[in-house]
């Protein structure tokens, strides 16, 4: 069973003139943070909306924890944070959590203990009784995250969760997400902040013009096989000579040396040779590209 | 429980609007007016005279007439001004929850769409019922306690006013879902509210029009649309305790309200946001 499963999910707008999603087949495993990436208009928000039956597919369908998305009970253990969400301004933070919690099916007794906990978690414990019209964008976003967690969901659909939140707040949100993942929750994350997605996601999917163009484990995409950064105390001449002799590609990059070896054996041989020349090796780090680099590369490839 | 949460949040949203606060304030002033304007003169434990707004009467029949007159006045005021204010104050309830950023949060909850719409609808009806019953019950209690005449017909006027509002708000719900415009849905509802006396007098309009088509059209509109003028007359007759000749205007208007709400639910259930 998957947390999310779609089959041939297709959505056209403007009587078929605009394609938002085209035959999307996606499986999101349970207990992972799954990052959904794509340029503007790729269909990310449409996908989230279809999963929640906020809009309906032109064809195809989907399931949440094996329950058809057209069945409103599929949303019983689900929390959703919409991009640019709007809460009623005449309510305070506590009241918002109370009413939205009740709408999600929580009894009053559970909410009375849960609301202070959640306000504390999102650092709004001193703002519970303040009308939200006085809240900043970041505070509203934190309240949105608390609202997502009000029914202790097994699946969280988050559309730009760190939008408007400062770097410290972003880190706190990240910690919350990782903690939830560690507790077995599934998080389906749509964010433009690729560095955030990179830090928390287990798997990613890239959409472009409504089509799935890449999907897999984030580490598989970002780790480059047989490329290493060597951090040395000295020994620039030694490493240059040795690499030349061993026919190893060498580049200097930000005070470190990027080497491309053929295999682990050649890597070990390089280390042994350097150590034989008394070169002090401070660190050998597998080379990784950033998610941003990978994303741009994939999009460019797809354009070509 | 989920449905109740929607009703509660809608109730609060309506109450946050100044119009309902004004409505509530006016109702309180009216009740206070009755408390202080109605004077009784009791001799040996029996009412010997009643003075209402300075008019004194000793005849029990006259007292009842004055009482029914006051209650009719309040009922008519509520049916016209109260309905007008209530429709105005609640016109934004449907378009406001259909706004992007709000509707997504509501639809993401484990509720069917018709439940959400029903909750929103009942929330609006609840706030109007609260205001109408507040004024009617309290003014009825004050008047009855002071005069010793317990005239139940006045209480029925509150039920009629709430039913009329519920019918008209069903129409506003439909228009709100289709157009997402509070101003437009209010305009059309007011138009139907004010068009009602014309349709009632359609026989006189026939004479001015040539062709059978207009006759059929006006008859069709009369039977389909809510008959607010006749509902107003029914309310007045109920307060007076007069015999009701026909309930057709009530049940046909209720059928309209029910049908338009069902159509609204179907449209809302299929709408993409």
Could you characterize the architecture of this molecule?
The complex is a heterodimer of chains A (304) and B (273). Chain A contains ten helices and 14 strands. Chain A has 304 residues and is of the alpha/beta class. In chain A, strands 6-7-8-3-9-10 form a six-stranded mixed beta sheet, with helices on both faces. In chain A, β9 (203-208) and β10 (211-217) form a beta hairpin. In chain A, α2 crosses α3 (108-121) and α3 (108-121) crosses α4 (137-149). Chain B has 273 residues and is mainly alpha-helical. Chain B has one domain (2-270). The two termini of chain B are 25 Å apart. Chain A binds chain B through residues 49, 52-56, 72-76, 78, 80, 82, 84-88, 90-91, 95, 99-100, 102-105, 107, 147, 157, and chain B through 1-2, 4-6, 8-9, 12-13, 16, 99-112, 270, 272-273.
Query: How would you classify the quaternary structure?
Result: heterodimer
Give Rg of chain A in angstroms: 24 Å
With strands numbered from the N-terminus, the spatial order across the biggest sheet of chain A is 6-7-8-3-9-10
Tally of DSSP helical segments of chain A:
10
Give a brief description:
By secondary structure, chain A is α/β, with parallel strands linked by helices. Helix content of chain A is 37%, strand content 29%. In chain A, strand 9 and strand 10 form a beta hairpin.
Task: Give the tags.
A: 304 residues; alpha/beta; 10 helices; B: mainly alpha; three-stranded antiparallel sheet; 12 helices; 3 strands; globular
List the helices and strands and how they pair.
The complex is a heterodimer of chains A (304) and B (273).
Chain A: E1 4-13, E2 18-28, E3 33-37, H1 44-51, E4 59-64, E5 67-68, E6 78-81, H2 93-103, H3 108-121, H4 137-149, E7 155-159, H5 167-182, E8 186-190, H6 194-200, E9 203-208, E10 211-217, H7 218-222, E11 223-232, H8 236-246, E12 249-253, E13 256-260, H9 264-276, E14 281-288, H10 291-303
Parallel strand pairs in A: 3-8, 3-9, 6-7, 7-8
Antiparallel strand pairs in A: 1-2, 1-4, 4-5, 9-10, 11-13, 11-14, 12-13
Helix pairs in contact in A: 2-3, 3-4
Chain B: H1 2-16, H2 18-37, E1 38-43, E2 46-52, E3 55-57, H3 60-90, H4 93-97, H5 103-107, H6 113-147, H7 153-179, H8 182-200, H9 202-206, H10 212-224, H11 228-240, H12 248-270
Helix pairs in contact in B: 1-6, 2-3, 2-6, 3-6, 3-7, 3-11, 6-7, 6-12, 7-8, 7-11, 7-12
């Amino acid at each position: 069973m998957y947390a999310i499963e779609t089959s041939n999910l297709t959505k056209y707008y403007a009587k078929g003139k605009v394609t938002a999603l085209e035959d999307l087949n996606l499986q999101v495993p349970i207990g992972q943070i799954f990052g959904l990436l794509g340029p503007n208009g790729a269909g990310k928000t449409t996908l989230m909306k279809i999963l929640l039956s906020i809009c309906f597919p032109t064809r195809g369908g989907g399931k949440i924890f094996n329950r058809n998305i057209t069945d409103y009970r599929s949303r019983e253990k689900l929390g959703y944070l919409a991009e640019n969400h709007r809460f009623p301004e005449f309510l305070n933070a506590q009241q918002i959590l109370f009413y939205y919690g009740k709408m999600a099916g929580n009894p009053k007794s559970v909410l009375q203990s849960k609301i202070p906990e959640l306000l504390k978690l999102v650092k709004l414990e001193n703002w519970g009784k303040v009308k939200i019209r006085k809240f900043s964008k970041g505070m509203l976003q934190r309240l949105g995250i608390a609202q997502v967690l009000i029914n202790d969901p097994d699946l969280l659909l988050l559309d730009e969760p760190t939008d408007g939140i400062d770097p410290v707040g972003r880190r706190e949100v990240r910690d919350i997400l990782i903690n939830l993942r560690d507790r077995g929750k599934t998080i389906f994350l749509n964010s433009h902040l690729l560095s955030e997605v990179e830090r928390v996601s287990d798997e990613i999917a890239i959409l472009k013009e409504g089509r799935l163009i890449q999907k897999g484990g984030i580490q598989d995409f970002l780790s480059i096989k047989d490329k290493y950064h060597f951090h040395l105390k000295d020994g620039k001449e030694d490493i240059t000579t040795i690499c030349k002799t061993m026919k190893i590609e060498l580049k200097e990059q930000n005070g470190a040396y990027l080497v491309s070896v053929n295999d682990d054996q050649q890597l070990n041989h390089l280390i042994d040779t350097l150590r034989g020349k008394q070169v002090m090796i401070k660190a050998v780090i597998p080379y990784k590209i950033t998610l941003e680099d990978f994303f741009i590369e994939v999009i460019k490839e797809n354009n070509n | 429980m989920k449905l109740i949460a929607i009703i509660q949040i809608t109730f609060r949203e309506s109450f946050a609007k100044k119009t309902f606060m004004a409505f509530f304030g006016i109702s309180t002033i009216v009740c206070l007016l009755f408390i202080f304007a109605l004077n009784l003169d009791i001799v040996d434990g029996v009412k010997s005279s009643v003075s209402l707004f300075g008019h004194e009467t000793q005849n029990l029949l006259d007292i009842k007439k004055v009482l029914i007159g006051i209650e009719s006045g309040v009922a008519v005021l509520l049916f016209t001004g109260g309905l007008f204010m209530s429709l105005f104050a609640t016109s934004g309830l449907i378009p406001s929850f259909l706004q992007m950023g709000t509707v997504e949060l509501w639809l993401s909850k484990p509720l069917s769409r018709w439940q959400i719409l029903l909750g929103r609808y009942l929330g609006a009806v609840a706030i109007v019922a609260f205001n109408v019953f507040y004024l009617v019950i309290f003014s009825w209690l004050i008047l009855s306690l002071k005069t010793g005449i317990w005239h139940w017909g006045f209480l029925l006027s509150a039920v009629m006013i709430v039913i009329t509002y519920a019918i008209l708000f069903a129409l506003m719900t439909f228009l709100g879902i289709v157009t997402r415009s509070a101003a437009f849905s209010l305009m059309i509802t007011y138009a139907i509210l004010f068009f009602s006396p014309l349709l009632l007098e359609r026989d006189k309009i026939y004479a001015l029009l040539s062709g059978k088509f207009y006759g059929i059209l006006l008859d069709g509109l009369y039977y389909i649309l809510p008959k607010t003028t006749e509902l107003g007359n029914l309310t007045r007759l109920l307060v007076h305790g007069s015999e009701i000749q026909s309930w057709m205007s009530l049940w046909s208007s209720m059928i309209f309200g029910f049908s338009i709400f069902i159509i609204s639910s179907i449209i809302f259930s299929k709408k993409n946001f």
